[in-house]
Amino acid sequence: MSKSITAFVGLDVHKDSTAIGAAEAGRESPRFIGTVGPDLGQLLKALKSLGKRETMLVVYEAGPCGYGLARRLRSRGYACEVVAAGKMARRPGERIKTDRRDALTLARLARSGDLVKVMVPDERDEAMRDLSRAREDAVRARLKVRQQLKALLLRHGHRYGGKSSWTRAHERYLATMSFAHPAQDIAFAEYRQAVREGHERVERLSESLRAQTEHWRMKPLVAALSSLRGIDFIAAVTLTAEIGDFSRFAHPGELMGFLGLVPSEYSSGDRRRQGDITKTGNGHARRVLVEAAWNYRFPARISRILQIRQQGQSKAVREIAWRAQLRLAHRYRRLSSRKLHPNKVCVAIARELAGFVWDIARQVEVAV
């Protein structure tokens, strides 16, 4: 913490109000300043009464209000940090939570240096992340309506005997479907229309991602990550948009911890006990890596599709991608031979895959 900071301000930010707490350098208890509305002018007026902006640190929790407030305060000369709410220290006996107490707690922890900063992404990167998450939401909505359609068929004894659903053969099967009552035919037609619209929405967003990536400063990194087995264009865009600046991780273990892929631990004395993975940090990127890890259950090889994705990549990137295949495919076989649960094996592979992702990101220069 800079020695020039003499005032620590905690903001408990909500949609319609912001509670303000302040702590002076030293050991005095933080004081509650008051609550202002959503207007930035009211907040700036309250901050101005606390001292010079050069000697002030403003913090607030990451939440639904996003990073807009941090950007506006920074543009006006304030040092503003967004902090991780899940990593704030909480007293075991605390059973009262109010906006006033939260603001005072933020101010006190900012003074003691016990807050964990969250990286405020570039506005262009955040825009791509929003588009990526919109596609993810569309995929989830499409899955839901497909399940609803299948549930309708199952209730009336219709079971598809083909190998895969939502193929052309499955569509031909659905086209011949009829029910005993006209009301059921209407319900079935509406579900089919919802499935069709959901699929079209996913395709539109996928095409939009491809078009926007062409003008994105992270395009070289997306192409490099696509060299890894199991990480196609959509997965590479998701990882890049969610993780952002890989250079902030000095070691691959830091990235694994950020993604929540490291095991939890409770050790005391000579006893050491590890549990499930922490699942902290970014769940979107973690899901992509876990899904990609399933591909390493097959022997290492360069398929035609992967060969096309690796065209134009440097020798260093291709070598890292091949080392990843050799190690992770061998690792998958060894863990499976120990009769571990397939999900545990997959998560272990995903954790190591994160290390190869980190290594490839170091080989790529990204425009500022």
Uncertain runs are: none
Instruction: Give the C-alpha Rg.
Output: 25 Å
Mean residue pLDDT: 94
Strand order of the largest sheet: 3-2-1-4-5-6
Tally of DSSP β-strands: 8
Count of helical segments?
Answer: 13
The biggest sheet, with number of strands, parallel, antiparallel or mixed sense and barrel status, is: 6 strands, mixed
Helix content bin: 40-55%
Task: Quote the beta fraction.
Answer: 5-15%
Order of helices and strands: EEEHEHEHEHHHHHHEEHHHH
Spatial separation of the terminal alpha carbons: 26 Å
- Would you tell me the structural class of the helices and strands? alpha/beta
C-alpha geometry: globular
Structural topology:
Elements: E1 7-13, E2 18-24, E3 31-36, H1 40-48, E4 56-61, H2 68-75, E5 79-83, H3 99-112, E6 117-118, H4 123-155, H5 168-175, H6 182-213, H7 219-225, H8 233-243, H9 252-258, E7 263-268, E8 271-277, H10 283-293, H11 304-309, H12 315-337, H13 342-362
Parallel strand pairs: 1-4, 4-5
Antiparallel strand pairs: 1-2, 2-3, 5-6, 7-8
Helix pairs in contact: 4-6, 4-8, 7-8, 8-10, 9-13, 10-13, 12-13
